[in-house]
Each structure stands twice: as C-alpha cells, then as structure tokens.
Amino acid sequence: MLPPIAWVSHDVMSGEVRRSPCSTRYGGSCAKVEQGRWDGSGGGAQIIIRFLVQISNQSTGDLKVETSQPSGTHSPSRRPRLTSITSLPLLTTQPIKDRRRIMADSTSGQHHWNGVLNNALEGVGNTPLIRLDKIAQAEGLKCNLLGKCEFMSAGGSVKDRIAKRMIEHAEKEGILIPGQSVVIEPTSEYSRNWSGANDEAATLRKTSDGSGIGLAMACAIKGYKCIITLPEKMSLEKEVMLRALGAEIVRTPTEAAWDSPESNIGLAAQLKEKIPGAVILDQYNNPNNPLAHELGTYPEIRYALKSSNLKRKDIAALVAGAGTGGTVTGLARGQRHAEKEDGVKKAVIVAVDPVGSILGGGEPGNYIVEGIGYDFYPGVLDRDESLIDKWFKVDDSEALPTAKRIVREEGLFIGGSSGSALAGALKFLKSEDGKVIGQDESANVVVIFPDSTRNYMSKPWFIKEEQETNPLREQLRSILGRDLDDPLRKRQANGSK
Questions:
Q1: Nearest Cα to 147, choosing from 334, 332, 406, 427?
Q2: pLDDT (mean) for 256-269
Q3: Percent of the chain at pLDDT above 70?
Q4: pLDDT per residue over 207-239, tens digit each?
Q5: Which residue numbers delimit the Tryptophan synthase beta chain-like PALP domain (predicted)?
Q6: Residue 272: what are its φ and ψ, rounded to 5°?
Q7: What per-residue confidence (pLDDT) applies to 258?
Q8: Among 17, 203, 313, 413, which lies 20 to 30 A Cα-Cα from 186?
C-alpha cells in the first residue's frame, strides 16, 4: 500500500502550515512533494502555496515547510520556492479518506481545546454546533436546524476570530511591535503607514460591533493600548466591557454617515493622523477578516458534521448575517472551495442583513439590531454571485423577538444579530427555493450565531416582557396576593416596615 496523499497549505506571510491529518502508520520519516501550486488570491497580503505531498512517517505527523521568497511584489511570476519539508508530531488522529485537500485551520483538524491553554486568545473559536430542535419543530421544519454558537468563544463573539488573526498576523509581519506605536490601517498600506515609536503601543480601532471587544481582549493580553471609536447606539454593556479590558472609548453620532468626519470611521482616521504612530487595522478591508472564517470557522463546521451521528455530513444551507461581510464571505469561499476540490455537495449560502442596510439591497435607514448591516459596501464583502446565493432582509420586529425566543426555547444566550440570522434562515426555509431543504429530514442547515446576550441586557427590547399569558405567574400572584416584583406590598400587609 502506498503512503497517503494530502494537500498542504503554507501561508508564506505567517509561516502557518495547514494540512489534512493522517493517522495511517508507515515506516520511515519523510515527506515528498508530488505537486505544487501558488495561490496569490490574497492580493499580496496573503501568499499561500499549496503542495500535494506523499507522507511516510512512523506515527501521526504534521509538516514543517520552509520557503524562499523572491524580492519585490508577490505575483504569479515571482513564486515562492519550496526549500524543505519535514514531518513533525501532530495532535490529531483523524484519518484521510481520499486524496482531496481538506481545508483546516492551523489547529490541524483539532477543533477542540486540549490540555491547559496559555491565555484567553487560545480560547478563541472552536465553538460548538448545536441542534435547534424546539424551534425547528415549532416552525414545522424537518431539516436539522443547527446553530454555530460563537458566543461561546473567549470574547463572546464571532469577531474574536478576526481580531486575533489581524493582530497576530500584523505581529508576524513586523507591523505590530511591543513597546512601539502601532499602525492599524488597511492591509495594503501597512508597510508605508507604520512610523514612529512610543513607550507603549497604541492600537486604534474603528468598530461598530463585537470586534472591539475581541481586539481589546487581544490588546490586554499582549500589552497594547487600545482606542475604540464607538457609535452612540452601541450598548452600555459593550462600553463597560471595553473599559474593563483597558480600552479608551470615544463615542460618535450613530446617525453620522460612514464617510462623515464625525462617524466612528471618520473620527478614527482623524485620531490616527494626530496620534504619533497610530494606524488602523481596518476590519472592513483586512483580508484576515474573511480568512479567519475560511480557514477557521468553516473547517470547524465541517469537522462537527463529519464527526456527528447525523445521517448526512454535508451542509445543505449555510446562513450568516452580513456586517463587514467577512463571515459570510469566508464561509462561502470555504464551501465553494470544498465543492470544487473535495467534491462535496453544493450548499445554498444565505446572507442576512437588516432593513435599513444597503448590503442586501434597499435604502439606508436606522435600525436597532447591532453588529450587522452598513450604509456602504466593505471591501472584504465579496459580492460575487457564485459565492452568495440568496440575500434576505430582516427588520427589528422579526430579529429581536427571534433573539429572545432562542434564549427562552433553546437556552442559548445569543444577541440581536443572532436573532436576525435565524429569522432570515426561517424566511429562506419557508420560501419557494428553500422549502425543499426545510422539509428534508437529512438536510443540515447551519446558522451562525455571532453574538452574546451579554451585550444587550440593558436594552429596552431585551428587558421588555412579552405580553403573553403565563399560567405559572398568575398562580404565584394568586398565592402571594401581589405582583412578583412588589415585596413592599406584602410587608405592608403584614404590618412590617
């Protein structure tokens, strides 16, 4: 029997090596390159070379890849060259069943936490995929409705992933240096916008969602100072959490247009010009935003399905809200790549945004739900029709009650944008195009739950109780002779003070 063949991806900029794991035992200890391919799709920001390798090792093994890079701008005519490839220990025993490349994160198919973590950043991602059977049954759906629970990440949001990746890649590229000022600017301008040095690094961020908390967490761990420009409509809980992590908060008018000097983006740009050495990471244009999901979130979903007891192991439909667009773009790229390279069945990719956002069409306007939707098109949102199949608009009257329903019926402490995602998923599954999937008992429908209840507990929409009959509450009122939240009336009835 010949040793197995596996695809290996080497990210030249970061040094990360990803490969589909192999548990088959063979004698010897070597890895032979059978075929190479260069991928410059990152526009110069991410240079990835992929090799089809034949692996022969004594035990389960990973690979160490070293390359030499031509000087100057990376292009197909200046391809990085392989200089060496050797086998290293690997922590997984998941076998390769064919010769197709299986996309995996730098965890090499681990997809769970092993042992003791060194810090909170190692607790980012690796979130569970959970059945939503009560809601599915109530909605008359027969498919497997599954929630990817990003609120269980260390920072409580899907944005932890991009914050971690943007900072770590900026560090690896020599852009973020402890003890010096930091440029946080669109990736294409990293090299020419970094300048100056202070005693402590200052991290400047334009944010309108959970990425601020993820970034502040990373900065707290790594010792960078962090400045957040935050729209007024963002919740008090987010501000308190950011301050607890050591970030400085600057509020901006919610109604300000994205290109206004008064907006959170405009103000961040002004501060960047006036604070020596400060630049902007820019989640809106940073390719590490979608890459965090293409190389992290998506492989986790596939691993969860493959290792489950579900009848089918593929994704029939994948639904995600669109803010910067990094999540849905990265997931869609991962899925389309798997369809092309691994032969998996085609999935329907559904993007959801609020009424009042222009991403999925319509006029700009105000809405309550946070973390998704914009009045401009972020650079990381890939609008190629081959990636995203459907867009669904969801208004606050649909999103916010759905969020509370998920908490109450499924016990998952998600936030408003998760309500938007599920409301959009339900719309799709009841539409003409989606009802075939919704009524298929073997179909797996994955919905991304990006945020946590933590950020919304003071919001009127979350605090307000639904006007509904509650037999248990009425029984308690009858027994106590008072409203449940009015102890004073009982004390007065007993003559106490």
A1: 406
A2: 77
A3: 67
A4: 445 568 888 898 889 888 888 887 776 667 778
A5: 122-451
A6: -60, -35
A7: 62
A8: 17
Query: Number of H helices and number of E strands within the chain?
Result: 15, 15
Q: Is the distance from CB of 355 to CB of 347 less than 8 angstroms?
A: no
Residue whose structure tokens are 């569970």? 128
Identical fold for domains 119-157+288-460 and 159-192+206-286, yes or no, is yes
Give residue for tokens 């222009």. 358
Q: Are 282 and 186 in contact (CB under 8 A)?
A: yes
- Please confirm, yes or no, whether 134 is among the known catalytic residues: no
| 211 closest CA partner among 277, 160, 273, 151 | 160
pLDDT score recorded for residue 456: 77
What local confidence, expressed as pLDDT, does residue 216 receive? 87
Rg (CA), the chain: 24
- Pick the closest to residue 275 from 283, 264, 263, 267 (CA basis): 267
pLDDT of residue 304 exceeding 90, the answer is: yes
CB contact at 8 A, 10 and 84: no
Q: Please give the CATH topology (third level) of the domain spanning 119-157+288-460.
A: Rossmann fold (3.40.50)
Asked whether the beta carbons of 15 and 172 are under 8 A apart, the reply is yes
Per-residue pLDDT of 328-351, as tens digits, reads 999 999 999 999 988 889 999 999
Give the active site residue among 148, 159, 164, 459.
159
What are the structure tokens assigned to 444, written together? Answer: 């797996």
Q: Which CATH architecture has domain 159-192+206-286?
A: 3-Layer(aba) Sandwich (3.40)
- Count Cβ atoms below 10 Å from residue 185 Cβ, excluding itself: 24
Distance CA 448, CA 150 (A): 7
Residue 145: alpha-carbon gap to chain centroid? 19
Count of other CB atoms within 10 angstroms of residue 423? 26
User: Regarding predicted confidence, which is higher, 227 or 177?
Assistant: 227
58: how many CB neighbours lie within 10 A of its CB?
Answer: 11
* Angle at CA of residue 270, ends 266 and 271, nearest 5°: 115
Q: 181 falls in which pLDDT band (50, 70, 90)?
A: very low
Are the CB atoms for 451 and 417 separated by under 8 Å? yes
Q: If you search the block for the tokens 């990746």, which residue do you land on?
A: 165
Specify whether the CB–CB gap between 13 and 46 falls below 8 A: yes
Domain range list for the chain:
119-157+288-460, 159-192+206-286
- What pLDDT was estimated at residue 457? 80
DSSP string across 75-130: BTTB--EEEEEEEEE-S--PPP-SSS-----TTTT--S--S--SSGGGGSS---EE
Beta strands 81-89 and 317-321: pairing type? unpaired
Sequential DSSP letters for 402-458: HHHHIIIII---B-HHHHHHHHHHHHHHTSTTTHHHHT-TT-EEEEEE--BGGGGTT
Judge whether 63 and 86 are in contact, CB under 8 Å.
yes
SS3 391: strand
